[in-house]
Amino acid sequence: MNSSPSTEFLMLGFSDHPRQQVLLFVTFLVMYLLNLVGNSTIIFLVRRSSHLRTPMYFFLGNLSFVDMCYTSTIVPKMLVNIVSEDKSMPLVDCISQLYFFLCFACTECFLLAVMAYDRYVAICDPLRYNLIVSRKSCILLVVFSWLAAALHSMLHTVMASTLTFCGSNKIYHFYCDMAPLLQLACSDISLNKMLIYTEGGLPVLLPFLIVLYSYIRIISSILKIRSSDGRYKAFSTCSSHLTVVILFYGTIAFMYLRPSSKSSVNYNRVVSVVYTVVAPMMNPYIYSLRNKEVKGALMKVFIRKTND
Predict the structure, then answer these.
(1) Does the reported pTM lie above 0.85?
(2) How far is 13 from 259, CA to CA, in rounded Å?
(3) Is residue 2 in a domain?
(4) Residue 1's pLDDT is what?
């Protein structure tokens, strides 16, 4: 085939019907704004409220920042593509989006694991909590999460940037993900596949195993508490985090762990919307609605503003 290498892609993620485009644009814009408002509020409360200056809320503030960046990597370009006739994306922009998407997604995985570890120490070893989860430890854990995610993303992005793309340049997705890029490559992708099968799942699998182990120990400790009130109070301290974990890892499992025979373009788009747009939007509201300390800090801010 005598095709020149592609230097741009056509992002054909959603319907081109005018009425559906308007509905999709409004829906995703509202969800994006809710994401920004909710996560920025969490960051503001964590920084301003003295009651939230604990390791758990330090990690929550970082998670909110990652959620804002995570969605901002995808949604603004997606909104432009929905209403614009020009749905092209230069190869450089596509590779850049892939890098930041992988980086923020992997950072979220690590932070969820760190938060699970924090809850494990708080419930299973409360007397040594301040010693184990010190300010220095918190900073080191967050720095490690960012560095590990950045290195992982760089490795896969560099490998993707060495590929040659020719023939069709249509991506039936709303952002640049690794799978559709490999499908369009006309050069050898064996090294890319080997990297995905060996190292690719580690930033998801290892944090998940940490989360799983932590909650097995947490549930075991909670069941040993004799009073029902004690069990409820202990579980309530990690219920919000557990809800976020189930939402995040559940959609990833639906996306990547299903049989390939069940793969479809529409299925990929719907599930991808859940973990790239819906989940980051819901996280701050899950924490605020199910957490008395966050709601208390928010009420104090409103009361202070009213009095001023």
Answers:
(1) yes
(2) 22
(3) no
(4) 43
